[in-house]
Amino acid sequence: MRTMTRVGSKAQRPESAADAGQEVRPDPTPRRSFVFLGALAVSALIPRAARAQRVARRRAAPAGHAEDANALVPRESIAAFTEWDSSVTRLVRRATLGITAGEVQHASSLGYQGYLNYQLNYARIDDSAVESFVQQKWPLMSQTSDQLFSADAGQVRTQLQESTIYRAAFSQRQLYHRMVEFWSDHFNQDVDKVGYLLVADQRDVIRAHALGKFPDLLKASAHSASMLVYLDQNASRSVAPNQNYARELMELHTLGVDGGYTQNDVAELSRVLTGWTVQGRGNFVFNPAIHDWGSKTVLGVTIPAGSPAVGADGIKEGEQILDMLVHHPSTARFIATKLLRWLLTATPSDTQIGAIASVYRATGGDIKAMVRAILNDSWLPAAPMKLKRPFHYLVSSVRSAGPSVSSVTPLNGQLGVLGQSLFSWDTPDGYPDKIEYWAGNIVPRWSFGTTMSNYNSATTIQVDTTPYRAGSPDAAIDLIDQNFYGGEMPLATRSGLSSYLKAGTFNDTRVRETIALAIAANAFQWY
Amino acid sequence: MDDLHDADCGCQEYNELSRRQFLAASAGVSAAALFPAWLPKIVMSNNYASGRDIIVSVFMRGGADGLSLAVPFADANYYASRSTIAIPQPDSSASTHGINLDGFFMFPQAMAGGAAGTGGLMPAFVAQDLLIVHATGQLYVSRSHFDAQRYMEVGKPVDPALVTGWLGRHLASIPPLKPDAPLRGIGVANGLQKTLVGGPKTLPIASPANYSIGGSTATQPQRLAFLDADYANADEPVRSAALAATDTVALLKSVNFAGYAPANGAVYPTSSFGRALQSVAVLIKNDVGIEAAQVDLGGWDTHSAQDPLAGSMFNTMRDFSNSIGAFYADVIAMGYNVTLVAISEFGRNVRENGSRGTDHGRGSVMFALGKGIAGGRVLTKNWPGLARENLEAGQDLRVTVDYRDILAEIVQNRLANPNLGFVFPDWTPTMLGVTR
User: Fold this and answer.
1) Average pLDDT for residues B253-273, to the nearest whole number?
2) What is the predicted ipTM?
3) Any CB–CB contact under 8 A between B426 and chain A?
């Protein structure tokens, strides 16, 4: 500990530090390239064996080796546990919302590429059991906006949240639902503001195109009553356009904030989009009467002045700009970067971004092709771990614990306690996927482990501990390892859990407590 | 951590910083990312460890319309620009008239507890404990919520290498108020707000009254022991958070939240913002060692239906002013050493749009409350006015005071932290007489 302090002090206080209050100004350039090099190093350059060795040393002997784990390692690049040595199990962790023993077995039998193809060709996976359960349990989810108009708003919200949790946990189309989650954040909307309209958006925009073509997805979103209401596009009129949707369309949906547009482009695009609005019970319409027919210039492209006589064809101005946006090189890079961050690493390298952006350009924004390229068997096994967000954490607990479920209501409540009540992030950037945002939110997770393992009701959720108690305590720990960790539970966690289980009477209560700790343990927070 | 003694410094917090730095590095998080390599030598002496203020920082997320929060009613251009959402002057016979502040600015009734103007933030203003700063914000131009919020919370624009927040760096560069406090900073939120990132012993706790790992009381110590050991080798920032969490569970268990009776007749609204401020009040009065709290209030992105006399903007302003008004009566007016600040990422266009709302703009207002704040006035610096030729880009109230000038003076004079160059890198603040 003494060594540790000295090393730390030296590192944080340069010899040349000026006197109190006077800062030593940094030269930002070398630091940025440091971080960049670090990203490359972790994701590509360091051989696997060497990386594993470094991790092992770090975990075994935290003191006295500060110089090894130096600042070259970028933020949020956290090497995977040494126990995670199967590539195909890493793919299961990354391509699903949580491990089950069965999923790992299935993936192993198909092999890395075989399992990736299986998940990508999601339409071939029979999901009829899950879909018919959803239809029967949450009937509002099959209704049109016109029907939902008169439904109870609280019911709509609850059914939307619960059916989303259920599908994520029990659908065999796991990678598809990882992408549904991703696009739900990319095109985030708050159910408090849009109400029943969100049902159609989730169904006809997000779920319809989650592994389709990005241009189709973006255009569906631009015609979604829910999105237009969420970003006030429905309230925009030629006399005083509302810029909310026009801005986020470029900043969050396509080009990215550094994608090369200006405030003037926002203002001009908002004029182009006047008339894109919502009528009646969630019907998209173009209303020529409130369209601005003057000439506009967006991103250097001029749309000449038109006249009201053009009528309904005035929508073509907006469609022209949407086409331009989906074909813009900034969009290819922005979508590539976000997909890499979601599926691979918080700090993708320039090379990786370039590679995936070129897949976007070559395939016309084919999402499946980009996902396939990202989850390749050389990048993923070398990728850092990511921290599960609360939704992912909750769903993965359910998948691993394998309870019988007849009601999702308790889980939906728990997700709120964990801090990620679905469709309730009120700003259009979506729930953060940042480790520094979620890392401190740890006690609710520990508490949820206890709640989850104690579900024992035939009418809601029931975790059966019989299989865990069928053999010895060691066999119970083995089964926990298989079900929750795919057989790759870190050794230290395993020995801690084993000690805990054996320190009490081997019964239902103690087994449930041990499962709770397996869910609460550090290694279960990552994927 | 008694053995973490540094002979060069001799103060515990310095070592805390060092230890975190080391742990961050050893755990694979870039130390440089958490604390810059150029970290200046930090002044750490204990002689200002007592008597300094606790800070409560409120972020008004969404871009709050400063022209509705503190209305420049004497500027005729205000009425010309807001044909449907303007608030009538204080001496107007309309029932919705504003409440005069200084003959130029006024509160809408939603900020002052109604037509009589005796509630909301008015008592704090009258007692000269509330300072309103107008035409303020950040000098760097961004009309993106997310960039503008990030830059403000970090305390510096456009520096991808700087990931800690200004309040986190404040905590990291000053000795704790209570040497053994397990929890120094709290974000009353599900996730840690950027403002607090980098703060030692700082956690997001959405509901401090229900902070427990659940399950049987009998086995709780053993289960906590397992978790403590299991997370001891976790990667940063999870490791530090987990260790702070186990200590904090014990701490908050000892605090009686349910039986809390606010002082001074204060009534907190039952909104989540009101409850959050009440939780902070409970922690402050229980003297648990909290030094900084970050509380957020959303609902300010009023592209439509901004009518300040009814509806969503009205409700948000009322929630804001009644909650802070209750906190003022319950805590600040009772003499606790607390400063509260409230900021937003930007203001909104001077002219309303076609949907009775306003789009993203620039200058807005800031609020500072405390016994050490030179309040009872609206502070402006060369008020630019609302005439079109004086607007930024022809549409927005100019930013004449950088928000860091206000915060830096509070950090130095009320929080007794002289390390302004660390809290606000690359910024030389101008002191405007914010504090007494």
Assistant:
1) 96
2) 0.84
3) yes
